[in-house]
Structures are given as C-alpha cells and as structure tokens.
Amino acid sequence: MTRAGGDAIVVSDIRKSYGDLKAVDGVSFTVREGEFFGILGPNGAGKTTTLEIIEGLREADSGSVSLLGESPWPRKVSLLPRIGVQLQASAFFEKLTAHEQLETFASLYGVSTKVVDEMLEIVGLGDKAKTREDKLSGGQRQRLSIACALVHDPDVVFLDEPTAALDPQARRNLWDVLRAIQERGKTIVYTTHYLDEAEILCDRVAIMDHGTILAMDTPNALVRGLDAPTRIMLERGALQVEQVRGFVGVDDVTEDEQQLVITTRKPAPVLGALAERGNLDGLQVRTATLEDVFLDLTGREYRA
Questions:
Q1: pTM of the full predicted structure?
Q2: In CATH, what is the architecture of 7-217?
Q3: Is the domain covering 229-287 a CATH 3.30.70 domain?
Q4: Which of 13, 77, 23 is nearest to 49 (CA)?
C-alpha cells in the first residue's frame, strides 16, 4: 500500500543515446516515498539505463533527476548510505558464506553483525548463513543480493529484474520478501518484464518501449482504461455454440478442439445463464491484464 509522503524521486525529461540508438528518449515520472514503483517493458526498452541514471551510475545526455532531494550525478557520497542497489548481474566474493558475504557489505557502512543476522532472516536465508555463496540456489543468491542492497537500511531500494531466471516457486518466495521490504517503509523502484508479478506487487507502473514511457498509472487503472472484453472458457461440448449465442451479454462465441470461448463485456448475465444450466464446472474466466494493455499500446507481441 502506498504511504503518504513527498516525492522520493523526480525524473524530468531524461535522455541517453549511444550513437543512433536512443536508449532513453524523454522519460519523466515521480516516485512517492514508500511507493512500490515498477518500470515494465521488454529487453531493450530502456529500463536498466533509466535506472542507472537515477542511481547515479550513468550520466544522462540531458534532463534532470532528483533523488531524495539531491542530484545523483556527479556521484554524491552523501546519497550512498541512503540508497540500496541490486543490479541484474550480482558479483560476490569467492569462497565466502552467505553470512560472510553480507557481513562484508555491512562493514562498508559500519553495520553491526546483529543487523546481518536479522537481514538474513528477513530474506529467508537464516538457515543458509554458513553456506558458501556458490552452493546457494539461484533464488537464494537473488535473495542474498537483495539483502546486500538492504543491509544498511536505505531509504530507497533499486531492484533491476530481481526475479529474472528464477523458477516459479522461487519467484513467489521472492515476492514475499519484496512485500516485507515495503512494509518496512522503503521506497522500491523495480524493473521487470514479468507483467503478472508487477500487477500483484506494484502501486504504480510505467510501461516502457523504445526508450519512452507508453503509459503510467496503477495496474488496475491501466487495465480498466483498456475496456477489454472478458473471456469465459468452457470445455468443448458443454454447450452448443448457437445455444450460447442466444445468451444476454454475449458478443462472440468461438470453439476449437478443446474449448468453447465466450467473449463478453457484460459477464454477469452470461455467468448467470451458465449457472442456471449447471455449466460452471471447469469454467475459466479471463479478464484483461497488463499484458493486454501492453499489446494494445504497442500493437505487437510482447518480447520477454
């Protein structure tokens, strides 16, 4: 849930080009304190470059960024203790255990060993404290990387595709960690190309492609604005196509070898008619998602 407060980040018309490639092309947005803000888009959309400019890792060609009231470029030593950064590619010290890895990062900020133990528990690695980093699973390494970004208790946390390459179970375990981070009052800026998890986790999202923001709002508002139909799926043979066409609220009916698909913008009467006929077993209802919003905005297939 978004918390009341001022703007933690203000991005104004930033641009970054590499030769003829416009990696970031006039991006503007704000992130409120305590907000979980997602930057969504396919690979090559400009998400990581945008994040690196905000973090002060890369200089914009033009435009401005205010991070906690300061410009992050040139690099500000005063900002470093207040931000946590988890990059796409994490590098750890060789032959160190999870606890030793985190303790090394913590020592850079003068953080006590007690905090290290607490952080390992928060990310679900308390029982892996004595396990070497190279013996951890992919999901556990990602959680350790996030712990390293959080160990000094920063005000703003940047996470660049933290669930990339994780299996479904590891992704969902990490969602719990991210929710716990926000519950501690942190501002989270998060990039991903997984639209389903952004719809669940984020207070607001910006959808990017070709270096520009195509749309920005809460996930629910973006989906509502699409005005997309609802699709109701039944097992084939449950009802005849012509029979379903007569239901109130049905816009279209199609059938393939496996299922019958009803398209409607008034699902309530259609579902009521199906319930009266006892056809709810195995029924599936699909409403619009952020992926549908993306397809509507770009007019082409979403690239993972």
A1: 0.82
A2: 3-Layer(aba) Sandwich (3.40)
A3: yes
A4: 23
